[in-house]
Structure prediction request, 279 residues.
Amino acid sequence: MAAGSPGGYFVSETFLIFLQLSIVALCWLVEHYFPRLSNRGDSVRRVFSILVVWAAALGAVAFCQAYLFQPLISLVAPFMIFSFSQLPIPNAVGFILSLLLLDLFQYLIHWASHKISPLWALHSVHHADKHVTAATGLLHHPLEMMFSFIVTVCLLILFGISLQVIVTYSLLSTFHNLLVHANVNIPARLDRVLRWFIVTPDMHRTHHSVMPTEGNSNFGQLFPYWDWLFRTYQAKPSTSLAKLKMGLIEPNKGGAFNPLELMVQPFGLYGAAYRSKTK
Prediction:
């Protein structure tokens, strides 16, 4: 997924931390008894590494809130394109359109994070986890969170997205971001129905495949419609789920899965990509 959602920018950070930890704990129980894949990889070292990087990412968001939020408003507000709240349409229609537009923003940020080398170097930390579970939803590099903060806040200001829409989307995407990574066995029939409305775990699991064609598919945050529209939707991996390999492969693969390696991984990855282009 994209680097989180606008959640921590406009909703109580303490509440979101509690909510996310509660969802991860609940998912851990469900993953234990109803796993989609047998190898869940929820070792103490792996979870500890994710939590340390997550804590650093929370610090990065707190820094942005304290020192970048107001300057961004002052800088971008004069260039506002329009405001949904001022359009001559029913409030309910404006609310739904704003929600869809906000989700489109997240899709585009996620897509760009796979296509632009410096952004991919940061986003690759999220894909470094080869045992995708609900906890994987917490794994984002601090610099990726700062980039996501700046871009998302600018887009929200430019298009005059209301606070009600932002809070609603924040809560939905925070909840969904963890569930969509959960290693939970959803019946195939139910999964087919859900895909008409939201991105499902099986759909997003394909996105975490080591295969480039599969990893560059299913960029949707909440809704699957943008993947359909831009032809990035892939219904299932080319192999069976039992044989699906997730994570990174060379030359993207970093070092060991520990907090230090995850924090420095983007710099080594981007440096290698830059050197290969300049040869």
The radius of gyration is 18 Å.
